[in-house]
Amino acid sequence: MSRTSYDRYLTVFSPEGRLYQVEYAFKAISASGHTSIAVKGKDTSVVITQKKVPDKLLDPDTITHLFSLTPTMGCVMTGLLADARAQVERARAEAAEWRYKYGYEITPDALARRMANINQVYTQRAAMRPLGISMIIIGHDTELGPQIFKLDPAGYFVGFHATAAGQKQQEAMNHLEKKWKRLAGNITDVDAAQVGNRLGRAEVIDVAIEALSTVHSTDYKPGEVEIGIVSTSEDEDLKTRGQWRVMDKEEIDKWLLAYGEKD
Amino acid sequence: MSRTSYDRYLTVFSPEGRLYQVEYAFKAISASGHTSIAVKGKDTSVVITQKKVPDKLLDPDTITHLFSLTPTMGCVMTGLLADARAQVERARAEAAEWRYKYGYEITPDALARRMANINQVYTQRAAMRPLGISMIIIGHDTELGPQIFKLDPAGYFVGFHATAAGQKQQEAMNHLEKKWKRLAGNITDVDAAQVGNRLGRAEVIDVAIEALSTVHSTDYKPGEVEIGIVSTSEDEDLKTRGQWRVMDKEEIDKWLLAYGEKD
Amino acid sequence: MSRTSYDRYLTVFSPEGRLYQVEYAFKAISASGHTSIAVKGKDTSVVITQKKVPDKLLDPDTITHLFSLTPTMGCVMTGLLADARAQVERARAEAAEWRYKYGYEITPDALARRMANINQVYTQRAAMRPLGISMIIIGHDTELGPQIFKLDPAGYFVGFHATAAGQKQQEAMNHLEKKWKRLAGNITDVDAAQVGNRLGRAEVIDVAIEALSTVHSTDYKPGEVEIGIVSTSEDEDLKTRGQWRVMDKEEIDKWLLAYGEKD
Amino acid sequence: MSRTSYDRYLTVFSPEGRLYQVEYAFKAISASGHTSIAVKGKDTSVVITQKKVPDKLLDPDTITHLFSLTPTMGCVMTGLLADARAQVERARAEAAEWRYKYGYEITPDALARRMANINQVYTQRAAMRPLGISMIIIGHDTELGPQIFKLDPAGYFVGFHATAAGQKQQEAMNHLEKKWKRLAGNITDVDAAQVGNRLGRAEVIDVAIEALSTVHSTDYKPGEVEIGIVSTSEDEDLKTRGQWRVMDKEEIDKWLLAYGEKD
Amino acid sequence: MSRTSYDRYLTVFSPEGRLYQVEYAFKAISASGHTSIAVKGKDTSVVITQKKVPDKLLDPDTITHLFSLTPTMGCVMTGLLADARAQVERARAEAAEWRYKYGYEITPDALARRMANINQVYTQRAAMRPLGISMIIIGHDTELGPQIFKLDPAGYFVGFHATAAGQKQQEAMNHLEKKWKRLAGNITDVDAAQVGNRLGRAEVIDVAIEALSTVHSTDYKPGEVEIGIVSTSEDEDLKTRGQWRVMDKEEIDKWLLAYGEKD
Amino acid sequence: MSRTSYDRYLTVFSPEGRLYQVEYAFKAISASGHTSIAVKGKDTSVVITQKKVPDKLLDPDTITHLFSLTPTMGCVMTGLLADARAQVERARAEAAEWRYKYGYEITPDALARRMANINQVYTQRAAMRPLGISMIIIGHDTELGPQIFKLDPAGYFVGFHATAAGQKQQEAMNHLEKKWKRLAGNITDVDAAQVGNRLGRAEVIDVAIEALSTVHSTDYKPGEVEIGIVSTSEDEDLKTRGQWRVMDKEEIDKWLLAYGEKD
Amino acid sequence: MSRTSYDRYLTVFSPEGRLYQVEYAFKAISASGHTSIAVKGKDTSVVITQKKVPDKLLDPDTITHLFSLTPTMGCVMTGLLADARAQVERARAEAAEWRYKYGYEITPDALARRMANINQVYTQRAAMRPLGISMIIIGHDTELGPQIFKLDPAGYFVGFHATAAGQKQQEAMNHLEKKWKRLAGNITDVDAAQVGNRLGRAEVIDVAIEALSTVHSTDYKPGEVEIGIVSTSEDEDLKTRGQWRVMDKEEIDKWLLAYGEKD
């Protein structure tokens, strides 16, 4: 009951030093019923997320959790979809401003930092609630290669080799860690970067599909998942190499088949 | 009781990560006592809604839930009618601004996205309550053909082959899905788009009338429903082809008769 | 008790999707102790309302519920008289602005829509309470003939053949509907517009007087009612034809007598 | 107890459609312990009010409830004296602005309407409380002759032949009505205007003194009442004819004596 | 308990029509533990107040309740001293503005009215609390002679022949009234102005000292009272005649001695 | 419990006419655990305060309660140190503005009055809390000699011959009064100014050290106290004569030794 | 329970003179689960903090608590990381502004004071909550040598020879004090500055590692701690001498080894 006193005023600490509104925003993310996975390898980063079409008459092309941010960067948004759109528009505006000001594309880490700072402001000022969204950005950094950054409503962001967000975030993270260990040969002290660097485009996609399929114990059909990819692999078509793109149904079908046949 | 703590402040999450005010706005829509249906086919999209004249001395011409947005786009508004008018005026202004800025008409999806973004803002800021309105936009996209978009107070929007809003939304959605299945020959995995593409102007209108009549178990008379249509069918009169128009009583009578005689 | 949580904040939905403040404003109207009636016919629209002079030493000329809006439009205000004056001033300003901007008089429906939109704003924003007033506008539309529009605090407005507002609104509406049925020859499915179109100036006035007299079971004296009229009938004096005017005591006396003698 | 919920927020309706703050402002008026009377006749309007000097060492010249508004208009203020002064200053400013804008003096009804509109705003917006003041304006209208208008905190105003305000308002109103009836010869249906028009300057003053004396059962001494007058009577001194003036002690003494000797 | 509802919001009436915050400000004045007396005569007005030095090491020259406002006007402030300073600065600014605008010094009544109006605003708007101060202004009016005005937190002000403020206000007022009666020869209906006009400079000072000494049953020493004076008496030194001045310790000693020897 | 109603709103009186927030700010001062003493004599004023170094690894040079305000004026701040810094910065800005505007240094009393006025504003407006700081200013006034002024959160300020602030304020004040009495030869009615004027630089410092040592029953070591001084004595080094300076450890050691040897 | 009344309004004192929100912000720091240590010596200052990688797939290069502020100054932030980033950005902006305005780098104490003042404002105004961050700045002052300043959410800042922040702040402070004592030869009255001045670059690093290892009873591995350093020692590489730098894993490994071998 004493909580009710704190959560009505966004910018106030509870006696335990907690910011309840931020914690509730996290609840909004896990309650969204979606799980998203991101994996990066030597030359490729992908995001995969469930595509739930609650209604059969809904036009599935109009519903997506994947958004492009710059030609070489995209993201998967998990949580309140209306909030997601608002955050994506802001991210695009920030990227455009950077391009205009500095004459080159913003890097994934710079964009992640900028968006995280905006989120922090929502937790300190009284004017607006925090956004109920977890944002995972993937992209290609000319110096650092494939990149994954995850931002949360608290204004916290960090890079990953592989990560997850949403309903089954914890299960997916556990699965990915075990996978990494297995890839490293079941040694105790895995060097995650080293393992990642051994993964080519196909392996990265496979790991991502496996993670989503496993935590939901589901064999997904092409229309049930969305996959976004940025790859500089030679396997990637020349004209999309290094670009953010969302796979079409045929390509997804191909990868799902490949994953299915593996077993 | 603990709810009272959250719903007084629009922009605040409850401990479960919910935004109560937005949920109450949905209640305002279903409590309005109206049902609206939208269906699209190969070349035609229609909306049908009940025309309730609570008072016999009321001038029925002055009461409507259908509004034109641009020459080729219209909408049906379900919920608080006063809020509806405010939202329609905003939508028209947005469409006019687009035309002015870019020199061509806004497309249905762009208008739907813009209006949804405005709704999202009402859920994040403290200044105004969300609007108690479900907006279904129909129109013709030169590339994509007939379009249906539904927006809700949460700032969420999505495209449909056929959809419904208001009091009997759930029943109507169920009916439409079953209808689609029947049209597809009762196979399990219906491709909604494919089924829709087989529907001509007359079929689309028939499906819409059937849906509304069925969920309310009523044989409507011409003065009891409103029908809005955008059709590029050759059956459509040349001068209204591709334009949003509201059917007059005679035309509605014709279609209701056709539907009645079918049985 | 749980209501107290909602009605202090104007712009907030209750869990049932209701806007309590708007409902309380309706109470303020019915609690005002006044009833107003409006009736339109072929070429005439009239409003009649009670003139209560609570105090015998009050100057009855200074108390009125009828207000002119433009030369050809007037209204009867039912509810909080101080709010009424504020709304009338706004309506006049809107009409004047229209005339200035477009070069011709605003039409009754345009003015009604504009005022209703202003009322809607009071229900969505926190700055002001809704006005405790029901406004019935009458006027002559060059295309559509006599017009009656009723606006309420919710921002809802609609046209009528005959309507009522205030304390005995329901009784008056019932009476008018029965009257219409009687005029149509007691058939079930009355076409209200058709019946209205058969009513000349004298009949319209008679119907209005009858309605007010019946619901209050009172034989009114000239000083006890106010009548406003806009008529293009040939019975109307040439210099006031098509103009809004408030009847003087002598004329009211004449019509009351005519009504009395009818029985 | 449930009242406490409503009266803290000025601009909010209670569930019964009442505005409590406005009602409390009326309490502030009747609790002020003062009674004021206004009477008008053929060519004269007067206000009379008690002059209470709570403290014998107070300078009685510095305490008054009578204020001039324009050369030909004045008022008596009943209620919170500090609020009265604020309202009088506003009224003078409004009158001055009118004179500046239109080139002639504001009429009593125009000033009363303007001030009432200002009061209405205090009841609709949250920024300020309503003023705890009843304002009675008297003046001479070149067309309509003597005028009395009474304004209240609700923004309501109306003209009177004779009226009262403050602690004994009800008793004074009753007394004045009976007086009017007696003047009319004890007929039932008194025409208040006709009776008023028979009253000359002396009679008007006498009626006012009688009303105040009777409701307080007091024979007032010159220093205990204040009388303001606007008269175009030939009995009025030429240089104050048609002007607002406050009687000096000698003149009040004369009229009190005249009233006393009458019995 | 029900009071707590009203006193948190400055500008709101209680159900009895009272403004609690204003009443609490009066408590702040009487709780200050100070009493001030003002007396005026034929050609002199004086204020006397206690000089309490709570701490023996305090520099008594830095603590005062007397303030000059213009060369010919001063005041004694009773209540919260920090508030007093703020009000004095405002009064000086108002006086300076008057001098600048009109070319002559503001009169005591004009300054008192202006300051009272400012206080009224604090009681009507929500932005600031009322000031916990009673202000007694004395000065010389070229037409009306010596003047005393007392202002309170409610925005009420009035002139006096003699008055008091603070802890023993009521006792002092009673004493002064009795004194006036005695000076008038113990007749019942004392004309306060007439009595006052018989008092010369010495008598005025004596009356003031007597009043303060009596209500506190104390024989004051020079360092224990402050006396401010504006006198046009011939007894007054030529270069301070008609000017506000604060007596030095020697002069106070002289007058206290004179008072003491009288008995 | 009823207190909770008042202390949340800074600018509001309690029913007893108290301003709780201001009283709580005083608590913040006494709860700071510090005591400061100020003493002035013929030609010298000093402040002494405890230097508590809660942590042995803290750099003692970075912690101080003494601040210079102008070259000839300084202060000791007792209470919340973060608030102290804010107030000192404001005081310096005010002093600089004065110098710029008038061409000479601000005097101690003018600066004290200005800062007190700023504090009063914090007690009347809702925007900021009062500062939890007691400020004692010392300096040299070319006309009045050494000066001590103490300001509190209520906006009250006054001059002293010797004073104290903080945890042991009351005990220190009592000690200083007794000391003054002893210096005066144990007579009852001590003239504090006269006693003070007999104190040379060394005596003033000795009295201050004695007061602090006595109330805390501690023999302070050089690193445990801070001493600020403004002296025009001939004992003062020529280049710091009349200037504010903070003593270094060596000098403090010298004075503590002198005090210790005295016993 | 009574606390709930105070902590919702940032700028308000509790009856005990406390500012709860500030205290809760301290809780947020200690609840962060991190400990940071800072030590300075003759020519070197270092900060060491734990590097916790909660997730094995997280990219450890993207997570840090060390930030550069100017080329010669850096800091370790302990508490809410999102708040930390906001404060660091502000600090850099302040440093840049100083450089621009004055033409030379800001000194550590000036930057610490400026940031502390900004924190104080958050505790006095209602607009924003205090930041849940403890900031320890290290740097080289050309006059004073190595510097350590610690700032807290209350706006308090102070210099140290060695200090700690976060979860084990108290234990680390105790350890460091004991260490200093041991370094001084176990004498009672340690001169912290003198001890510090005997520490060279290697000793300073060793003391810091020892402190962190001891309070957490952990032998840290290179990837588990972060070390920031500013050193003018000749042992420091010429091109980083006097510059802030963060050690790479190899260097950390070297120092951890050296510490481990010492035992």
UniProtKB/TrEMBL annotation, chains A, B, C, D, E, F, G:
Keywords: Cytoplasm, Nucleus, Proteasome. Coiled coil: none annotated. PROSITE patterns: PROTEASOME_ALPHA_1 (PS00388), PROTEASOME_ALPHA_2 (PS51475). CDD domains: proteasome_alpha_type_6 (cd03754). It is found in: Cytoplasm; Nucleus. GO terms for cellular component: cytoplasm; nucleus; proteasome core complex, alpha-subunit complex. One of its GO terms (biological process) is ubiquitin-dependent protein catabolic process. It comes from the Eukaryota. Residues 6-28 form the Proteasome alpha-type subunits domain. The 26S proteasome consists of a 20S proteasome core and two 19S regulatory subunits. Belongs to the peptidase T1A family. This is Proteasome subunit alpha type. It comes from Clathrus columnatus.
